[in-house]
Amino acid sequence: MFGTIRNSSGEALDYTFHSGTEGSRHIAVLGHGVTGNKDRPFVIALAEGLAAAGIHALRFSFAGNGASEGRFADATISKEVGDLGAVLSALDGYSICYIGHSMGGAVGVLSRDERIRLLVSLAGMVHTRAFAEREFGDVVPDEGCMWDEPDCPLSRAYMDDMAQIDTVVERGTEIAMPWLLVHGSEDDVVPIADSHEILARASDHAELVVIDGADHVFGEHAQVMVEKVVGWVQGQWA
Length: 238
Fold this sequence. Notes:
Elements: E1 15-18, E2 26-31, H1 41-52, E3 56-60, H2 77-89, E4 95-101, H3 103-111, E5 116-122, H4 128-136, H5 156-165, E6 179-184, H6 192-199, E7 206-211, H7 222-236
Parallel strand pairs: 2-3, 2-4, 4-5, 5-6, 6-7
Antiparallel strand pairs: 1-3
Helix pairs in contact: 1-7, 2-3, 4-5
């Protein structure tokens, strides 16, 4: 529907569009986390839930991930902010809600793109340096892989970018749009404390929903997550 979407490096970004109510100018854009892609089951479930509620949804893979062009080793938060901008540019005339999971959540907080009217962070990454050191501190960059996944090499560019960003916690004060944070109580990848910490710096337009028992990718609690997010988005655009 939106033709080929390319980032500033000329790399085509793979995406899938889910049609909501015909004629609607509201759309949710879904971005995934590190080592993920647009076809994670809970991402698909959320896109389908939004479309069933009449809200257009577009889920995409950042460059170097899934079927998108580019190298995984070049996929950093800073580059993915640009990827998101390229997607938004293809959606001229739409009112946009960006929904980012994990590292994709940090992308949304750092974006500062005024075309985003609503923001949703799903288990959003906050302390990037701490995350990289905690999860990959024992891996040699440009030699090893993330979580022993051979298709996900750990690059020096990734580690340097995570260290340079360090944390997005203070950016919470700059998010003026309606903002929903969703986090599972049993997340062992991004601590739920991260969402509590950034929420404390956010405006009155932000709120946190804790899903009891849910892990980082929401697992068997995915439908609860979908219901919470869809209901919130519907309420904002009612």
